[in-house]
Amino acid sequence: MKATDLALNQLLGIRAAPAGEPHLLEMPFTPQLSNHLGTMHAAAQFALAEAASAECLQRHFAELAGQVVAVVRGVEVKYRAPARSDLLAYGSPDERTGTGLRTLLASRGRASAVILIDLKDRAGTLTFHGKFEWFISPVPPPAP
């Protein structure tokens, strides 16, 4: 399942970036997503970042689709600047995840993955930085 398939993400207007763009996802700034200051609500930014971390995990480790289940275990967030326009989500695995996730899964059967996410407006202003830790384990066998 893609992050953009989830009902909440559709409700928020989260969509895949156009082909060839360096970012993963984007979210339009709408009146429904604004806070009492007229800027993008922190919860909306968080939702975009979480969706982007899932999208990043799926893109970088596509061969694991259908073999593993991933759930968010922990998050570190820093809001950097008010968001006043559409947001673009950029992401990448941290170095340990990028180089060692497959080996760790093969040897232990489970692993943690860290995905780093930046949200920027179309002018390139960084509004949010997040570190999403995912717990990854094999797909459980079907119930009898």
Structural overview:
The chain has 144 residues and is α+β, with helices and mostly antiparallel strands. It has one domain: Thiol Ester Dehydrase, Chain A, CATH 3.10.129. Helices cover 26% and strands 33% of the residues. It is built from 3 helices and 6 strands. The protein has a 6-stranded antiparallel beta sheet. The longest helix is centred in the middle third of the chain and has 19 residues, at 42-60. The relative contact order is 0.20. The model has no long low-confidence stretch (mean pLDDT 95).
Beta-strand content estimate: 25-35%
Characterize the biggest β-sheet: 6 strands, antiparallel
Outline the low-pLDDT stretches: none
Briefly, what CATH class?
Alpha Beta
CATH topology: Thiol Ester Dehydrase, Chain A
Q: What secondary-structure arrangement, pairings included, does this model have?
A:
Elements: H1 7-11, E1 15-16, E2 25-27, H2 42-60, E3 68-79, E4 87-93, H3 95-108, E5 111-121, E6 126-138
Antiparallel strand pairs: 1-2, 2-4, 3-6, 4-5, 5-6
Short description:
By secondary structure, the protein is an alpha+beta fold. It is built from 3 helices and 6 strands.
Task: Using brief descriptors, characterize the structure shown.
144 residues; alpha+beta; 6 strands; six-stranded antiparallel beta sheet
